[in-house]
Amino acid sequence: MPGAEFRILFVADVVGHPGRDAVKALLPGLKKELRPHLTIVNGENAAGGFGLTAKIVAELRASGADVVTSGNHVFAQKEFVGELPNLERVLRPANYPSAAPGQGWCLVDAGGHQVLVMNLIGRIFLEALDDPFRAADAILAAHPGTPIVFCDMHAEATSEKTAMGWYLDGRASAVVGTHTHVPTADARILPGGTAYVTDVGMVGPRDGCIGMDKDVVLQRFLSGVPNRFVVASGPVTFNSVLVTINSSTGRATSIQRVDREHS
Question: Which long-range contacts link 53-58 to residues 24+ away (Cβ below 8 Å)?
């Protein structure tokens, strides 16, 4: 008997207060329209553009996030180092050293099914951490028989994200890339049944530079002098993807971009 459809809505990197406002305004309506069984939000830039806090996690949950993933800025807010271990279904990349607080995967019961969600971070052009490929292997080996597996691969290099897609093809239901804040047009189903996209994009100010104030960013490029980035203002682009999965096989049947704007 064929499995039922299982839908996961993944919302890209939320940038600062403008991004959180857009999630609050748009996500509840999208969930009514698309009827996902599970909603995952990458929140690593939600606190002023850098990091998370427990208060902001609660805000994202109130807007409809079931799981919150992160990336290289996960510990940018000092208080979050102590807060993270007490938060359920909030992930830091699994290939951080084991001494780091929090964990990089969680099991979620949703829509009558158990889902394994993992968060990984790349090493090219980012701080070198443990091997994300072997971290993925270890997580999968520890959870045999869980057909629905979702991976947020937070990385700078498109080659590294593409490689992870191929590495997990047939073993994960979906591998979605985050971090660059620039959406890519390569969403597809790989031969083994894994939904893949190199970068989902962001939920952040459209007229900034990847969500940050463009004048501040330009000044750094023009002068070479470090300065403090601040989140831009103006209309917000809301990037996400909806992945549909066969609940019995764990294979994805479709991945579609869901892009909106919020004034």
Answer: 53/77, 53/79, 53/80, 53/83, 54/79, 54/80, 54/83, 54/86, 54/87, 56/20, 57/87, 57/90
Average pLDDT, the chain: 97
Q: Is the pLDDT of residue 1 over 50?
A: no
From the candidates 73, 154, 179, 181, give the one annotated as an active-site residue. Answer: 73
Q: Which amino acid is at 128?
A: A
Query: Domain tally for the chain?
Result: 1
The predicted model scores a pTM of: 0.96
Is residue 223 predicted with pLDDT exceeding 60?
yes
Both tokens of 169, joined, read 């093809």
37 catalytic? Reply is no
Give the CATH number for residue 103: 3.60.21.10
- How far is the first Cα of the chain from the last one, in angstroms, to the nearest whole number? 46
pLDDT at residue 18 tops 60: yes
Is the distance from CB of 42 to CB of 18 less than 8 angstroms? no
pLDDT at 2: 66
Distance CA 226, CA 150 (A): 37
* Domain containing residue 140: 5-206+237-262
